[in-house]
Amino acid sequence: DGVTPVGIAWTPDSREIVFSSAKGGSPALWRMPAAGKATPSRIAVGDNARYPAISRQGNRLVYDHVIVPDRNVWRENLSDPAQAPLQIIASTRNDDSARYSPDGAKIAFRSERSGTGAVWICDADGSNPWQLTSMGESGSPHWSPDGQRIAFDSLVDEHWQIHTVAARGGKPQQVTTGSSNYRPNW
After folding, report:
1. SS3 181
2. Is the Cβ–Cβ distance between 29 and 75 less than 8 Å?
3. Distance, CA of 27 to CA of 23 (rounded, Å)
4. Edge-to-edge strands, sheet with 28-33
5. What is the model's pLDDT at position 24?
6. What is the per-residue pLDDT across 4-54, written as a single tens digit (0 to 9) for each?
7. Which has the least CB within 10 A, 10, 51, 60, 133?
8. For the chain, what is the largest distance between any 2 Cα atoms, rounded to a whole number of angstroms?
9. Rounded to two decimals, what is the model's pTM?
10. Residue 130: exposure state from Cβ atoms within 10 A (0-12, 13-18, ≥19)
């Protein structure tokens, strides 16, 4: 339909995708079968929703909810669509790019609450946040399949580069060089 999606997430069984699109005006979340030519159905989370991520168990969805000028992370209960979305990660600065850990117990996210974009981790309900990176502008966290490491992008010498770091903390390791590399995925 000529509208570029802003974030795509697969359901754990790979039968459906959830994506953000401004198809109806402002960005909203849509769901559709991965195969065939089905019409997408809108998920009732309201406008200004982007970058969805689904827990491995398939019963929870996190996404960015943009309220200018502050972005926050909200959770949708996919098992009970009648339940209202719940804001789970928020500060007075932007919080976005949330990703569930493979076991669903933690969320890695980007936050500007320390003054610049950094990768943070919290419990699945948004409690107990702590800063994982502190090396300048960083974000786009993505968990390794075993949950032991997190890949992220960071601005290095005017170029975005991909790094990894132990999920419990430690010294990040740069894994790309050269031209800009961003939005990592395992």
Report:
1. coil
2. no
3. 7
4. 8-10, 16-21, 28-33, 41-42
5. 59
6. 677 889 999 999 999 988 765 678 889 999 988 888 888 888 778 888 999
7. 10
8. 48
9. 0.72
10. exposed
